[in-house]
Specification:
CATH topology: Ferritin
Largest sheet: none
Number of strands: 0
Number of helices: 6
Strand content: under 5%
Radius of gyration: 19 Å
CATH class: Mainly Alpha
Distance between the termini: 66 Å
Shape: elongated
CATH superfamily: Ferritin, core subunit, four-helix bundle
Structural class: mainly alpha
Number of domains: 1
């Protein structure tokens, strides 16, 4: 049998870590390993700290990917939508999501989260990718309507994920990122609904 290289063993270990993170996010949260200032609480176990790190990695990865997909859709709508109000909204959404994306990337570096080592709920990722493909394929006169419909649907889905994520993030800075993301999504969702009803 061919022996695995060190890199292959590392990749296999990362795969197991990701699987553990997904399971951990669905189980009940244990003791928080961080104090009020974000410092490690020495009263909790190493297992608690590992679990916390895995969950925080999942939350950061979720925020980063939602932001990336939201920005890409918004930039496309800002270019192709024929309704000025929709172009304006799409421009604002892309502008507001970029700092969130950047904060998620910075946190990923701080927490030493390797790209691709965390996974998303397939329902969320499939919905975003499908929506982006559809928007790209839409004829120009339909882009504005399609973008608003998608934004209402996807932001509603993302908000559900964010609310769920808030209860699982451990680090205060990760919790703050999730909270900021949810607040931004709520504001944009209200604007998209208002335009959709006009």
């Amino acid at each position: 049998m061919r022996q695995r290289t060190a890199k292959q063993w590392k990749n296999a270990a990362l795969t197991l870590i990701v699987a553990a993170a997904v399971v951990a996010c669905r189980e009940e949260r244990g003791p928080a390993p961080y104090g009020a200032a974000g410092a490690l609480d020495t009263s909790v176990t190493d297992t608690d700290r590992v679990e916390a790190a895995l969950r925080d990695a999942q939350m950061v990865h979720l925020v980063e990917n939602l932001s990336l997909w939201t920005i890409e859709r918004a930039e496309l709508a800002a270019q192709r939508a024929d309704a000025p109000a929709v172009r304006e909204l799409a421009t604002a959404i892309a502008r507001d999501q970029r700092p969130i994306r950047d904060r998620a990337r910075e946190l990923a570096r701080t927490l030493e989260i390797a790209p691709g080592t965390a996974t998303l709920d397939p329902q969320i990722s499939t919905a975003y990718v499908t929506a982006l493909d559809r928007l790209r394929a839409e004829a120009s006169p339909n882009v504005a309507r399609t973008y608003l419909e998608q934004t209402v649907e996807l932001h509603t889905m993302a908000l559900g994920a964010m609310r769920h994520a808030t209860s699982y993030a451990y680090r205060p800075d990760v919790q703050a990122l999730v909270t900021e993301t949810a607040r931004t999504l709520e504001a944009h969702l209200a604007q998209a609904r208002a335009l959709k009803e006009e």
